[in-house]
Amino acid sequence: xxxxxxxxxxxxxxxxxxxxxxxITLQSxxxxxxxxxxxxxxxxILAFEQEFGLQLDPEEIDQMxxxxxxxxxxxxxxxxxx
Amino acid sequence: MAIAIxxxxxxxIPAVRAFNKxxxxxxxxxxxxxxxxNIPDWLPKLDGRRIYQEYYxxxxxxxxxxxxxxxxxDFFLAGKLQPVVYYHLPVSEGIINKAYAGVGVHMLRSAxxxxxxxxxxxxxxxxxxxxxxxxxxxxxxxxxxxYFKANHAAKFLREIAPLRQSESRQLLAGLAAFTGAGWAxxxxxxxxxxxxxxxxxxxxxxxxxxxxxxDLWQQCREHYKxxxxxxxxxxxxxxxxxxxxxxxxxxRRGKPIGWAVMLDSQMRDNKYFGNLRLGSIVDCLALPADAxxxxxxxxxxxxxxxxxLTISNQSHHAWxxxxxxxxxxxxxxxxxxxxxxxxxxxxxxxxxxxxQLFMNRxxxxxxxxx
Lengths: 82, 370
Known about the structure:
A: 0% strand; globular; B: alpha+beta; 9-stranded mixed sheet; 16 strands
């Protein structure tokens, strides 16, 4: 997993979840981050789509409930898009 | 395991029951539980019908993690009849278990993929999660204005819940009712606002809609930017004889000019209406120029029956003016209309056209809670 990608994900997630970047880890998830509700989840998805210029499928969205899953899906998509 | 959106089939009923049980344990009110039958009680899909509902579930292995309903109906829009789909009752396990926070987005994106021309209606206010999600997705939202008219001011002032939000307001309302000042204020508002009805009008109670209502639909539909099909067949499906709907037709010199569907319901400790006898003007149709006589007719009809309070939600400016000229006051509305991007493109510019849409409590999931 690219550390550069993780840093970009961390920055966006911190902004939307109203946390400092160092509070975001690969294990951060909707279960252990209090501010991560369904509306913020959508805002995360939209922010990643805008930042990386891609469209996430509905099936991918439910695998994005933690930072590790998000980074992994984004990495696959970015590699696939070349 | 990945969650898949699929049509609700009979074999998933036990999983929906288990889902509802988890929602109930998490404190979710029964009205937000998903139906425990895969065949809708209201508007099932029947041969030849253009108005029907389909249920969809978010399935995670053998478990159900969410569901939503699509109501299919023709609308007159951009010069032709075309299906526009109502997205409703989206329920997600995310409301009780944050591990499923993504299910709501997944369902909404899936619904948009199935049917880009979507709308949502009601939703309880702009601050609720669904309108916030729709706004984030670039949908266009507006409130469908709410109007009310009190016929028995003393009872209205005692019962109406929004006036009782603070002790001082409760005291004021109680005092006004006791002294009769409330009645005087209401009568004054009524006298100032209520225009005189036309003498040549006939208001008749009808048991069902008929062919003359098809003619009216044909005449009226082009006068609204967006209006759901209100032909005779659709109306008799939406407002069947065996339910408690009251229907009137308004004619001028023998020619039908409009109709209204109403409810007359005795409330019992209702969170908004206390124990008032509530009259609701649920649905209606006429040319915009004839909205006033229809609203006058409906208001008088309900008053004669003895309702304490009459309410209506109407999006179109002509119908709002008609209600105001019948003595109604406007209050804050939690009844929100939201148009998907694909639908909003046909309504552009939305800010200017939102009061030319024809939406009321007959749209969406119908006159629930009235």
